[in-house]
Amino acid sequence: MLAADLLVAQNIGFGIIAVIMVVGALRVVTTSNVVHAALWLVTVLAGAAAQYVLLAAEFVAVTQVLVYIGAVMVLFLFGTMLTRARIGSEKEVNNKNWFMGVPIAVLLLATMLIALNDGFGSEELPADPDTLVNTQMISDQIFGPYLLPFWALSFVLLAAVIGAIVLARRD
Amino acid sequence: MLVNQFLMLGAVLFCIGVYGVIARRNAVLVLMSIELILNSVNINLLAFALRNGSADGHTFALYVIAVAAAEVGVGLAMVLLVYRNRKSIALDELAEMKG
Amino acid sequence: MLSASTEAAEAVFTSGWFLDHVWIVPIIPAVAFALIIFFGKRLPMKGSELGIVSMLATLAMSAAAAYQWVNRVEAVEKEVFVPPVIKAWTWWSSDGFSFGIGQHIDGLALIVLCVVAFISTLVQIYSVEYLHGDRRYTHFFASLTLFSAGMMNMVIAENMLQLILGWEIMGLCSFMLIGHWWEDGANSRAALKAFFTTRTGDIGLLVGTSVLFFAANEWTQKTLGISGFTIRGLSAWALSGEPSSTAITVGAVALFIACIGKSGQFPLHTWLPDAMAGPTPVSSLLHSSTMVVAGVFLVARLYPVFFEGMNILGTNVNFIVVIGGITIIIAAALAFVQNDIKKVLAYSTVSQLGYMMMGLGAGAWLPAVFHIFTHAFFKACLFLGAGSISHSASHHSFDMKKDMGGLRKYMPITFITWIISTLALCGVFPFSGFFSKDEIIDNVGHNGYNVFMIVGLVGAFLTAAYMTRATYLTFFGTPRGASAGEHHDDAHGSHDTHDDHGHDAQAHDAHDVHDDHSSHGPRESGKLITVPLIILAVLAIGSGFLNATPFGEKWEKLKVWVEPRAEVVDPTSVALVAHGGPGEAKSLPAAEESEEGHHSSPCGSETPTDGVCVAPQLNHAKFKWSKAALSLIIVFAGILISWFLSMQLYERKNKALVGLTQRNKLLGAGYKLLANKYYLDALYENVIVKAIAYPISRGAYWVNQKVLDGAVNGAGIVARVSAGWVYRNIDQRVVDGTVNSSGAAAQGAGSALRPVQSGKVNQYGALLFGAAAIGALVLVIINT
Description:
The structure holds three protein chains of three kinds.
Chain A: H1 2-30, H2 34-54, H3 58-83, H4 101-120, H5 135-142, H6 147-168
Helix pairs in contact in A: 1-2, 2-3
Chain B: H1 3-23, H2 27-52, H3 56-86
Helix pairs in contact in B: 1-2, 2-3
Chain C: H1 2-9, H2 17-20, H3 24-39, H4 48-74, E1 85-94, E2 97-105, H5 107-130, H6 137-155, H7 160-178, H8 185-223, H9 231-238, H10 245-262, H11 271-274, H12 280-289, H13 293-301, H14 303-309, H15 319-335, H16 341-361, H17 365-392, H18 400-403, H19 412-426, H20 432-446, H21 450-475, H22 489-495, H23 505-518, H24 527-542, H25 557-561, H26 571-575, E3 592-593, E4 599-600, H27 625-651, H28 660-663, H29 665-675, H30 680-734, H31 739-753, H32 761-783
Antiparallel strand pairs in C: 1-2, 3-4
Helix pairs in contact in C: 3-4, 3-6, 4-5, 4-6, 5-6, 5-12, 5-17, 5-24, 6-7, 7-8, 8-9, 8-10, 9-14, 10-13, 10-14, 12-17, 13-16, 13-17, 15-16, 15-21, 16-17, 16-20, 16-21, 17-19, 17-20, 17-24, 19-21, 19-24, 20-21, 21-27, 30-31
């Protein structure tokens, strides 16, 4: 069956991308070089965009690439450059109590994996969904029932723009 | 494809992000960890959107991306301000709120 | 009568361009605000001309609209419902909910609109001189203009959301204006306090609006075809006999809490006197005639909701009346211990607002609205007079005991206008306060609230007494301090609100010049200050005659113009929206003649059939000179007693009176209570704020210790915590359980909990996620 073949390909794709993302994410939180961390973050974000495509969400994937990899990463790199005299690895990027994070993260992960396994078991995603979400549907949603959050979001962005200017301004 | 493979990927990324928030000392790195958390949420939203065949998840994933962009902008401006005042962005030195 | 009614059913209501376009009024100052912000600094008068011009334009427009409204009302019979002029557009709609924006113009909206436009105009003119050379002169005018825009938007609001919009704009602008000289810590604290206190009340506004919307929307959509946010929809719903008493009572109480915050009613009145830290024109505009009136206006606007929710004509005590009554007395008592002239006026405002609330609560709708009207003029005049004194005579001090006295010789115009306004405030015939205040007291008694009539009379006595004291200290006796020509740095440093803010060179020069003539002693203020004072004083005399009940029905103009007629009307005339032109509204011939020829309407007392009501039928007490004489005697007694005591105390230094509060224990305790403002501030800051923070932090501490030390130390810790708890309890009981001990307890607890508050972001993150993980785990275990 063609669909089954495709699914195998998708599964392989998912596996590869997932491994890259997890490795990248681990490097983001362990590397001692801030610029390296930012670059690893790029791989994670790009991987996420690829996963969105697998999930049949092209519009979100494109937005992810534009906003995250395009704008947010540039911001991060600028932030790094503006706040650090020297680009390179640093000794003390971690807290004294960094090990506190391990049990908490492991506990959270265990809880979530148990819950997910329990809740969704081996439920399949619909291989051939009845309604594929397209960009038009998303825009109908945004300017229809979800107009109010959209407005709130616009205000958040406006406030963030003004706030960032006020905060970062030299005076 | 299973629903769970995406949800579990999201869970793993989320926990890595949580670890980063707790363990990191550099404010920029903490912000990056928060980005990891937000992305894992997006993966979940889209997985459920596909499962339920609705566009709600897509809409909110877009909203999350927008909020994340705003958060990074303000966060980095704050980091910049802190750096300018203290010549350091180590979070454990920022303990003015100590009670 | 019946024929008249049928005729009226076809009556064509006149309208006019201005009446149809009142919605432009708030837009004018809003545009002016934007222009001032962007171009103000480049203009020759630094933006103030834009503000003044916009205010004059709004004044002209609202006056013209009021004139057309009067024509509209007078063209028809007295028993005919005059539909408000309504325009509504859809502001936005989302998933079945649609919110409108527009205008709801009736007598109430127009009278308040005119007052706001008028007072704003005068205050802006006055500010040109008062704030001359100020550092943030342009910003000041911008905020002032936006403030007026907010208030006007609230006044003409067609629905609750538009009203909330205006309400919040005002809140924001009051914050900016009170904190105008924020370099001084006290000012920015006062601004924050005003903002937070009113915000506390605003929770009630949001809750009340939501409750009423969800309760009313279905009915209004079905019957009138309009949303449950609209004011006319809510009014009709409230009087339809439809609403459950719980929903409407909860909604009314929640809305009234918002009014308590905004209108400075007990127990949220504490922000108003502190807000006097702002420039005097701001005090005059915000805290005498516009912002604080917003709460009273809201009650008057949605009166049917309060009428039904509080069962106003059915009881002799309700929430609104009680709050109003308490406010009258406690605020008047507080005014006696103030030395700052503006604080006396501030407490006087609080007390007068109490009158308005009490009047509304007791069914005296028209007198209360009339009191808004008269009070605006004489209180603005008093505030501007106080500003005039500090500007020209007392070297920017507001301290009556230190820096004033004997000013009547130096400032004749200020003195005369002050006396006129004081007499109006006290309610002396024939000044305007007499007509409104006396009528409130009269009607409160008439509607069965006898206890509160006495409260009103006591309040009138206290008002007369504290105003006499303030007048005596300011204008009579011997000059003291700055007004005696002394130029002491003390006053400069501690009371100065004006000139240590001009830090740039130009303002500093102005300030030096200023010092020069101040040191020559007190003098009369300039024309830009005295002319507004004179205008206001004339109105303080004249405005009362608009509804002069003593002279018979012919003089009761406002009753015809402003009071909505309680008639059963056809739903379509209420639902009237943008397309419904003037004249489409129809009144049903429902006027029934009762036996004694007295016109009666079922509105408010029973369920209206075939039609809706938008205003309840209210009673009006018949004016009797005997009752008025009683209150006049009380007022004169207050003036005379206070005059005598003031003279003995401040001028003759009578041994029997001076220092009485130190010698007599009871009086001393009373003085202390008043001087500390009933300890309300201490209550809010020490007890309530800490009582909320304390259990939370104690709980966090307990969890923290458990997690860290585990079971080994658990028992010891529990013992220690409980021992500490017992200790604190006993401690509290031994020390007399007042403010101090609870403060100490909170402090003790705070120091024990300090380790949790490390101030480290990562640690907070660890606590947060750890708690989330544990919570999630618990959920998972429960559910599997």
